Amino acid sequence: MQHGPQSAFAQELHAEKYRGEGESFREAMQRIASALSDGDAHYRSFREILLDMRMLPAGRVQAAMGSTRQVTPYNCFVSGTIEDSFVEGHGSIMKRAEEAAATMRVGGGIGYDFSTLRPNGAHIRKLNSKSSGPLAFMEIYDAICRCVASASNRRGAQMGVLRVDHPDIEAFVRSKQNRTRFSGFNISVAVTDAFMQALVAERPFPLTFNGEVYKEVNPATLWETIMRSTWDWAEPGVLFIDRINADNNLAYCETIAATNPCGEQPLPPYGACLLGSFNLTKYATPRNFDWHGFKEDIPIVVRAMDNIIDRAIYPLWEHQQEAQSKRRMGLGITGLANALEAQGTPYGSPDFLTEMQQILMVLRDTVYETSIQLAKEKGQFPMLDRAKYLESPFIKRLPKYLREGIAENGIRNSHLLSIAPTGTISMTADNVSSGLEPVWAYAVERQIMMESGPRIERIEDYGAAHFGVKGRTSKDVTAKEHLAVLLAAAPFVDSSISKTCNVPASTPWEDFKRLYLEAWRGGCKGLTTYTVGGQREGIMAVAEDDTTSDTDEVVAACRIDSETGRKECD
Fold this sequence. Notes:
There is one protein chain. The chain is of the alpha/beta class. It has a domain at 76-259: Anaerobic Ribonucleotide-triphosphate Reductase Large Chain (Alpha-Beta Barrel), CATH 3.20.70. It is built from 23 helices and 20 strands. The strands form six sheets. Strands 1, 2, 3, 6, 7, 10, 13, 14, 17 and 18 form a ten-stranded mixed sheet that branches. It has a two-stranded antiparallel ribbon with strand order 4-5. Strands 8-9 form a two-stranded antiparallel sheet. Helix 11 (291-311) packs across helix 14 (350-378). The longest helix is centred in the middle third of the chain and has 29 residues, at 350-378.
């Protein structure tokens, strides 16, 4: 049996991204399994899962674990709190910039909350001068990202977040409505419940900093500005920050203000999280789903991922302390559309939503059960307060036997679930549908470099090539169906979900805005939309043809590939 990627494109992509020089796919999977195993039996079972590509560790895990390269297996980081000081103090703007450089240099993407910085024009008493505001200081971090990318040929990825009540919010929203500025950033607005309530109630909304009201705005006008930018430029994303904190398993000991660059990991200051995805196409046949095999694989994977936390290289000591005190991981799924449509269930249909929820429920319950058992064997995570943990909304949704298990034995990992965009790793698995997304196209053409020179390779959708099934493509799925998938999945994920709702250009404006209101009312932690034919697509089309600069490509933050429809962050 031939293991690993089957197509020439997937094979070359995997080798380029995740393997050492001359390393075969089998050798790479043996390396990873050896680095993460607890003894011979665990090594063999985990190696089999990896060889069969039933589970796809995040790209950084594949590149780092067991490798001689000094890189981190963590995709996701959030900066320490940025203090409102240029150079003074441990948390100054420049100190955090130095830490960001150290993080990106070893392969980590990083998110920042810039809401802690005083607005543009605010008085600086000590210097008797005026502040430049958060956007000016974001330029420093953007430049660092470009420098890291240029020096290491590794794409940097950053997320910049600003609260909706910050006085500079309007300038922030408009900051990426161009082709050049902040190329190393994705940006998101941290939208509060207070803002959404003011929007619905049609009452003025104050923009404040440190308790001082700078001005009041019409929330409908500000919301229109955010929506217009999102429609045209696919940014900013929207984070429902109060929902993120209210649903956090660790709300009793941390406050979250930012996410990783793709948004599926809301993290506290110095937060770090590991990612990996179960490839559902490997459990699916045209007639059924292998529930037994799926459930058997999950504990093996959780044990291996938990071992990374103690065996990883960390960019900073603070990252290591944060990771090992809470032991977060983010396991998710990919290939969902291919797997369920192979069984005759159209993407976005009621049956699709029901079957997806069954898969996510089995994943949720099994990872939590495994983590409870690991706590009995290896100890609970140090920051666990059992009584307070059991009061969190997500934990209250768990079955009674799991809540009783936590009360009796504790739990090894504070968070266990996250659904990432899986852009690149899904392509290395022969182009399975990525994450929760529908199929983008039945086939695309890409240029690949071979020893004999470049050639055009036709890359088929996995479902069409292996199952003989041409499911609904993204252009066939309505925006409401995209949102329905997100709303149905959200209650089963303890961290968050990176999903893009593709919106046809013909969508009525009020319907588009209503998506975000429904997402907030439905309990989502955030929402990202992508308007087909918008300005952002134009930028990507230009980038495909522009050969004048290598740096523009490697510093691009998480992006949606205009040919494959995938969000790529690794």
